[in-house]
User: Fold this.
Amino acid sequence: MLLAGSLALPGRAEAAELKPDAVQGFDRYVQLTERRMQTELRPGAAFLWVDGLPEAHRNSVYEQLQRGEVVSGRLKTRDSSSESYTPGALIHHWVGTVFIPGASLQQVLTLVA
Assistant:
């Protein structure tokens, strides 16, 4: 019983000190991602993450969303020469999507704010 109780207590979290190469790599990743996002915001581009998926996968995701499932996916922004380089660090870049039938934008914003 004591073991179970002690496992449930949160441990002390230590902040990691990022090395300059990792910070530089992350900053580069942010710049590349923002540049990619600018092209996605142009008129005629896919507005939602789901709309930019390959057709077969997109249809499957639409079906999941219509069933009320939350769909997530891992995103990666690649440098034209290779993947981003962040030695000693990991970049977790995910997107999540949910469909709420009958909800207005104002209702959703009120709920998440």
